[in-house]
Specification:
The complex is a heterodimer of chains A (387) and B (321). In chain A, helix 7 links the parallel strand 3 and strand 4. Chain A has a 6-stranded parallel β-sheet, with helices on both faces. A two-stranded antiparallel sheet of chain A has the order 5-6. Chain A has 2 domains: 310 residues, Thiamin diphosphate (ThDP)-binding fold, Pyr/PP domains (Rossmann fold); 35 residues, no CATH class. The longest helix of chain A has 26 residues. Chain A contains 14 helices and 8 strands. In chain B, helix 9 packs across helix 10. Chain B contains 11 helices and 14 strands. In chain B, the strands form 3 sheets. In chain B, strands 3-2-4-5-7-6-12 form a 7-stranded mixed β-sheet, sandwiched between helices. Chain B has 2 domains: 181 residues, Thiamin diphosphate (ThDP)-binding fold, Pyr/PP domains (Rossmann fold, 3-Layer(aba) Sandwich), CATH 3.40.50; 125 residues, Rossmann fold, CATH 3.40.50.920. In chain B, 60% of the residues are buried. Chain B is an alpha/beta fold and 321 residues long. The chains are: A alpha/beta (387), B alpha/beta (321). At the A-B interface, helix 14 of A face helix 3 and helix 11 of B. Chain A: This is 2-oxo-3-methylvalerate dehydrogenase E1 component subunit alpha. Chain A: GO terms for molecular function: oxidoreductase activity, acting on the aldehyde or oxo group of donors, disulfide as acceptor. Chain A: Keywords: Oxidoreductase. Chain A: It comes from Halobacterium bonnevillei.
Chain lengths: 387, 321
């Protein structure tokens, strides 16, 4: 470089002298996208371009989500499941987003079960999953989806799936559903940065349902929003009203288009977990009735019904008949799940490796032999295929 | 007082927080809700929000920050909600907590405790059932403790918090509430690195710890022989002397643990016996362990434990030679 050329700061073209200026959260204004206001009002020009059948479809899936959670909590209380995490209150957030996904997309979820049914997973397999039967996840995998139990652990996998789609030139995206709590894990931050740096078709869909077990979203992070975290990783973000199914649909649909072009996107959906973390949790220990009541008033199904009434679509929807159909589907699924037979002990050793190593084979045989020689072992063992 | 294991944990935390202002308790859901197993219930009310802290969902930071607090002079007691969620923080144990003393030639240290419920049997989802003490005991510089009785739980936890080195305190959640035991209200320690002889005998030695102690004692009671039962209590550093002396006396041994068989603590105990008591052995040392598989999900998790008939089978095998 000659001495006459202007110099540039190596890190940034713009330099400033004087008092250092703090970059603050107030530099950032993050809007929350909304189509239908809590009072049911909306601007007809802003409604996403869906036909009447699709509008009704969204309602049906939201109702499926609500009925499924209710029935699962009920059978857990009867001792027919180990535990269960209800999604009540998050129906718009879950359905509006999943409705945009295509069959070749991959879906890795936390707290979103109905999207699997939308992709063709039988309800029976979800019941089996919550009964602790490995075949549940096998069925999910056949429909390009999985559930992550270890919070945040799935985000790097989703970055890798998306990378594979990019390498293969496939017309698909990989989606991670995560919660507010997951945004505090190291795995999430590494994965979001990684996806942003490699520009892979990954969609990070964060349902901020305000609680990670007992910890509120305000206590989870000092950041004003979760959406803004993506910006630091060079990734664009949308914050959306998670109680407004049309806003969620529109936001994620637009996000998916960008992701498909190799621009990963992070979406924060602001919603609320109405029920306990799981059936083992007692939320009255850490949140007030007033708070829960306020969110009950922001019920996503009710808000969407206001929209359907205004559009003249509600008269064609027989809510009670749909609910009865979903209940019947659940009854049939439960019956099918109950028909699942006890498995042989060799199942414990299956699928640990592609090929069973000799020592593991020996452990399996010795255990089968022991069960025959000492049937009193069954006094201590109960196989519970029915929960 | 009569207390369960989880009540003994709570009592030890109350005792030490009252005795030492430097003790800070933190983790996910430990403060406001008192922990998912209620092990930290009441601490927030008694000791306030500076010393009892609900953290973000960040295992790496929980263990790493505990190390930093300890280096700065505090006595952190961090909780990992389930042992299946410790793996992300494995790096902090291996890279920092266990090495600070060694790295600084003793100029710094990390006197800290990471508490976590471990083991299967509570019918939860995947990652809520692991017994990975073998992996953790493999880290030089880290102590690994697993109590099996309410009395020992309080004494070992008090000793762990006061220990000059980092301690991974593995709580047997399957027996968290399964029985009560006399737990002194006063302050006492059960020293780390000392096994306990739970049952004296002359024919055979069984070594176990944590959640496997009740089935081990049941099997010893059923055996048609005079069985000695050793509760290791501290996995690392291990009280090999108590084990070796017992085996020299009995000439036969069985090791029982819940975690996978291969590359586990059981193999290490057998090696110690071979090193120091080989010529006293009258039979090969038996291992009764979990399988070399992930813990089955809840519909089949019962199969995974070494239940008393499995332990008894091994005892009879060792006696038959």
């Amino acid at each position: 470089m000659s001495e006459n050329e202007p110099t540039e700061h190596p890190a940034n073209a713009t330099v400033s002298a004087g008092e250092p200026r703090f970059l603050t959260q107030d530099d950032l204004s993050v809007d929350t996208h909304q189509v239908v206001a809590p009072d049911g009002s909306y601007d007809a020009d802003e409604v996403p371009d869906l036909d009447d059948e699709q509008f009704q479809d969204l309602y049906r899936w939201m109702l499926t989500d609500r009925v499924f959670s209710k029935r699962m909590v009920n059978i857990q209380r009867r001792g027919e499941l180990g535990t269960f995490g209800s999604t009540r209150g998050q129906e718009a957030s879950i359905i509006g987003s999943a409705y945009t996904l295509q069959p070749d997309d991959w879906l890795y979820v936390g707290r979103a079960w109905t999207p699997m049914f939308m992709r063709g997973v039988p309800m029976k397999d979800m019941i089996m999953f919550w009964r602790g039967i490995e075949e549940g996840q096998q069925s999910f995998a056949e429909h390009n989806c999985q559930i992550a139990i270890s919070i945040g652990s799935h985000l790097p996998l989703v970055a890798g799936l998306a990378w594979g789609m990019d390498l293969s030139g496939d017309d698909a995206i990989a989606t991670a559903y995560l919660g507010d709590g997951a945004t505090s894990t190291g795995a999430a931050h590494e994965a979001i940065n990684f996806a942003g740096a490699l520009e892979v078709p990954a969609l990070f869909y964060c349902q901020n349902n305000q609680y990670a077990i007992s910890l509120s979203a305000e206590e989870q992070t000092g950041a004003n929003t979760l959406a803004q975290k993506a910006l630091a990783y060079g990734m664009d973000a949308i914050r959306v009203d998670g109680q407004d199914v049309l806003a969620v649909y529109e936001a994620v649909n637009e996000a998916r288009k960008r992701v498909r072009n190799g621009e990963p996107v992070f979406v924060e959906s602001v919603t609320y977990r109405m029920d306990a973390h799981t059936t083992s949790d007692d939320p009255t220990r850490y949140r007030s009735d007033e708070e829960v009541d306020a969110w009950e008033d922001a019920d996503p199904l009710e808000r969407y019904r206001e929209f359907l009434r205004a559009e003249g679509l509600w008269d064609d929807i027989d809510h009670d008949a749909i609910e009865a159909e979903i209940d019947a589907e659940f009854d049939a699924a439960l019956e099918e799940a109950n028909a699942f037979e006890e498995r042989g002990v060799e199942e414990i050793f299956a699928h640990v490796y592609a090929e069973l190593p000799p020592d593991l084979q020996r452990q399996s045989e010795e255990f089968s032999d022991l069960l025959e020689r000492r049937p009193e072992l069954y006094d201590y063992i109960e196989q519970r295929p029915k929960g | 007082m009569q207390a369960t294991i989880v009540e003994a944990v709570k009592d030890a935390l109350h005792t030490e927080m009252a005795a030492d202002d430097d003790v800070v308790v933190f983790g996910e859901d430990v403060a406001e809700s008192g922990g998912v197993f209620r092990a930290t219930d009441g601490l927030l009310e008694e000791f306030g929000e500076d010393r009892v802290v609900d953290t973000p969902l960040s295992e790496i930071a929980i263990v790493g920050a505990a190390t930093g607090l300890a280096m700065y002079g505090y006595r952190p007691v961090a909780e990992i909600q389930f042992s299946g969620f410790l793996p992300p923080a494995f790096d902090q144990l291996v890279t920092n907590a266990s090495r600070i003393r060694w790295r600084t030639r003793g100029a710094l240290s990390a006197p800290m405790v990471v508490r976590m419920p471990y083991g299967a049997g509570v019918r939860a989802l995947e990652h809520h059932s692991e017994s990975m003490e073998g992996a953790y005991a493999h880290i030089p510089g880290l102590k690994v403790v697993a109590p099996s009785t309410p009395h020992d739980t309080k004494g070992l936890l008090l000793a762990s918090i006061r220990d000059p080195d980092p301690v991974l305190f593995m709580e047997p959640k399957r027996i968290y509430r399964s029985f009560r035991d006399d737990v002194p209200e006063e302050d006492y320690e059960v020293p780390l690195g000392e096994a306990a002889v739970r049952r004296e005998g002359s024919d055979l030695t069984v070594v176990s710890w944590g959640s496997m102690m009740p089935p081990t004692l049941d099997a010893a009671d059923e055996a048609d022989a005079d069985v000695e039962v050793i509760d290791l209590r501290t996995i690392s550093p291990m009280d090999t002397e108590t084990v070796v002396e017992s085996v020299k006396k009995t000439g036969r041994a069985v090791v029982v643990h819940e975690g996978p068989r291969s590359h586990g603590v059981g193999g290490d105990i057998v090696a110690h016996i071979n090193d120091e008591a080989l010529m006293y052995l009258e039979a090969p040392v038996e291992r009764v362990t979990g399988f070399d598989t992930p813990v089955p999900l809840l519909s089949m998790e019962d199969y995974y434990f070494p239940h008393p008939p499995r332990i008894l089978d091994a005892i009879e095998d060792a006696l038959s030679v």
